[in-house]
Design goal:
It contains 26 helices and 16 strands. By secondary structure, it is an alpha/beta fold. It has 4 domains: 49 residues, no CATH class; 161 residues, Substrate Binding Domain Of Dnak, Chain:A, Domain 2, CATH 1.20.1270; 150 residues, 3-Layer(aba) Sandwich (Rossmann fold), CATH 3.40.50.2030; 226 residues, Rossmann fold (3-Layer(aba) Sandwich), CATH 3.40.50. β15, α24 and β16 form a beta-alpha-beta unit. The relative contact order is 0.12. It binds iron/sulfur cluster and Broken Fe4S4 cluster (MSK). Iron/sulfur cluster (SF4) binds next to loops.
């Protein structure tokens, strides 16, 4: 038993984290785990979504005795408004990330991108053609400029619907049109979300929720999709790459630099800076054996995917990483970086350096990242870490030995290539495997950690159950890091843990049973993969036909609310390990968990138990397979000439 009420082993499942949680308890350091307990019983009004503080006649909270707020708003209105505001928060976060990248692409096109360049011209030209740019006879910079302008309009368009919606299957586009949820510019959708939910505007819960779907679509098919496309153009399209995960990637005798957050522009340069011979020499002169760059959360995922930089940990490990006493500098950018970090760092020589002007924390050093002189900025941070190494107290260092091998880098492009080869890169083998029943379906397991659930346990239990039942799992974000720590991102995991059909496919193609597709914004890549499956043929003509399910087992962020909402609007059922804060309205709950099925062919499903979730996912997949009439395992048969003629092959 730990010093607190919850037994330590119920807080995390990996030994490295448990070791660091024990250390925190011994040192009396405050972590998410201890603060979660300090918060004790969480507010029931907040949990059920019936607390409103939108105007200053309130705050109001709805109870049986007080069913209306002072203005007359009922629980349905209040719960729906709170939900839309969460979707807007998540959409804003992803889309602002996308906007920064588009602005960087524009700078590169204008020759003002400093050390940034166009790394993947093929992807640039392919994307340009998709958006109607005639690229023949144009330089890559000209094409990049035109594409950046189109993408910038995705943010500012007032009336015109997002162009990126055209990347979806036609039938899905028709659903959005029919339901009147095609978003115009992302910024406008967000402003409208705030306008609708301010005092005395939109009071019809359904109308409010439909704007939540509209706003979320501007994230998944807009801001996030744009972020993934532009990242690939500037930083390169990920291809399979090996690395390691967990706190054991930190070096006992190396200068350790951690990146944390979401935006890849600075970390890309750090990945270059740490291998600069001048930097390595300086580290050695400071008494270290070299420099270790590793990451937490999605900035980590970004540079893992493209450079093989190791993953130190996921969301709930950010504080634990500092407790190793071996981190010289933790560099934060935006999103998911806890305000507690400087307080923990205080007990060590560790410096927390914030680099985005919109994301500063008391106690952190702020060094705004200078994109114009990106490599110099990155080298400055590396020098800071090297200098700080001299202040490290070896007596305070405790690095868990845990680290696991992984293979990441599964962009849609690389999946297509792995399945079909250079000359015939295609999703056909995957579609065939699903049709023949060797793979039953696809599950996107995504999202965060949350101290309400033993860290990683739901994600790992569910993942193991699904791959055993021949479901191919796609991961992004902290879920991918959880899988990495468990060794599930290796081809060997298929041999040991996958069902016979999935194992056969993984063996033939040489892929793990769980594919790491990137960071939170890269959930757009999962939509892209599902679209590829539809376009390849044989599995229906809409995303809602594909035997695919999205799952956010341990989510905590508003971004996850936005992701879930755009998945449902896209026709993909979503299973949540933790419920939304909507139980205070039966109507909102019914609409999101049932009513949307009629509108979009998909809905939310809440399932707190991972084993039951596995059964639910299989039920959802099998229902789709039944509808497609493919739910029997058929062996490959050789057709004779007569049969071939009849089948027109
Ligand atoms: Fe209360 Fe209505 Fe104001 Fe909300 S908007 S705080 S329910 S009076
Ligand atoms: S980092 S949003 S904790 S997945 Fe993208 Fe992880 Fe969730 Fe942040």
């Amino acid at each position: 038993m730990s010093e607190t009420n919850v037994p330590r082993e119920k807080k995390a499942m990996d030994q490295a984290s448990l070791q660091m949680i024990e250390r925190a308890e011994k040192l009396g350091a405050s972590t998410t785990f201890s603060r979660y307990e300090t918060q004790k019983v969480q507010c029931g009004f907040g949990k059920s979504g019936v607390c409103c503080r939108i105007c200053h006649m309130g705050p109001c909270r709805i109870t049986a005795k007080a069913p209306l707020g002072i203005c007359g708003a009922d629980a349905d209105t209040i719960v729906a408004r709170n939900y839309l505001r969460e979707v807007a928060g998540g959409t804003a976060a992803h889309s602002d990330h996308g906007r920064h990248l588009v602005l960087l692409l524009k700078s590169v096109a204008e020759g003002k991108g400093g050390q940034y360049a166009i790394k993947d011209e093929k992807v640039l030209r392919r994307a340009a053609r998709k958006f109607g740019i005639i690229d023949a006879d144009k330089t890559k910079k000209q094409v990049a400029g035109e594409l950046a302008d189109i993408f910038l309009k995705e943010f500012t368009s007032q009336e015109e619907h997002l162009k990126t919606l055209s990347l979806a299957p036609l039938k899905r586009q028709a659903v959005w049109k029919r339901q009147n949820i095609e978003p115009a510019g992302i910024d406008r959708m967000l402003v409208e979300a705030l306008h609708r939910t301010t005092m005395g505007v939109d009071h019809d819960y359904k109308n409010i929720l439909m704007h939540a779907f509209r706003t979320a679509l501007s994230d998944g098919w807009g801001g996030s999709r744009v972020a993934s496309i532009v990242s690939d153009i500037i930083f390169g399209t990920p291809i399979p790459i090996a690395s390691n995960a967990n706190l054991g990637v930190l070096g006992e005798k190396t200068v350790n630099i951690l990146v944390h957050g979401h935006e890849p522009a600075l970390s890309e340069m750090l990945a270059i800076a740490v291998s600069d011979p001048e930097m390595v020499k300086a580290a050695k002169e400071a008494g270290a054996e070299g420099i270790t760059l590793a990451g937490i959360c999605c900035t980590a995922n970004e540079i893992l995917m493209r450079h093989g930089i190791p993953l130190a940990g996921n969301f709930l490990q950010q504080e634990l990483a500092l407790l190793t006493g071996a981190v010289e500098v933790m560099i934060t950018d935006v999103q998911c970086c806890m305000p507690s970090l400087p307080e923990i760092a205080k007990a060590y020589h560790t410096q927390i350096v914030s680099t985005s002007d919109i994301a500063q924390t008391i106690g952190a050093v702020h060094e705004a990242f200078d994109e114009q002189h990106a490599l110099e900025s990155a080298k400055g941070l590396v020098r800071r870490a090297i200098e700080n190494y001299k202040r490290r107290d070896p007596a305070k260092v405790c690095i868990p030995l845990a680290k696991r091998a992984l293979v990441a880098g599964f962009s849609v492009e690389s999946i297509r290539y792995m399945l079909g080869g250079t000359f015939r890169s295609t999703f056909r083998p995957l579609n065939d495997a699903i049709i023949q029943g060797r793979i039953k379906g696809v599950a996107g397991i995504v999202g965060c950690n949350n101290p309400k659930i033993r860290m990683d346990s739901y994600m790992i239990t569910l993942t193991r159950e699904l791959i055993k039942r021949d479901v191919l799992v796609l991961n992004t974000g902290c879920a991918a890091i959880a899988s990495a720590k468990e060794g599930l991102l290796t081809p060997e995991a298929a041999l040991e843990l996958a069902g016979p059909g999935l194992r056969e496919v993984c063996e033939a193609v040489g892929i793990p049973p769980v594919l790491h597709m990137g960071s939170c914004v890269d959930n757009a890549r999962i939509l892209e993969a599902a679209t590829e499956i539809v376009l390849e043929g044989g599995l229906g003509d809409d995303l809602s036909d594909v035997p695919a399910v999205g799952i956010a087992p341990e989510w905590m962020s508003e971004k996850a609310v936005a992701i879930g909402t755009y998945c449902v609007a896209s026709g993909i059922d979503v299973v949540l390990g933790l419920p939304f804060h909507i139980s205070g309205s039966e109507k909102v709950t019914n609409f999101l968990n049932k009513g949307t099925h009629e509108l979009f062919g998909a809905s939310f499903h809440v399932c707190p138990d991972p084993h039951e979730a596995a059964t639910l996912v299989m039920d959802l997949i099998n229902a789709k397979r039944d509808k497609l009439n493919i739910n029997k395992k058929s062996e490959r048969t050789l057709l004779d000439m007569k049969q071939r003629r009849e089948a027109h092959v």
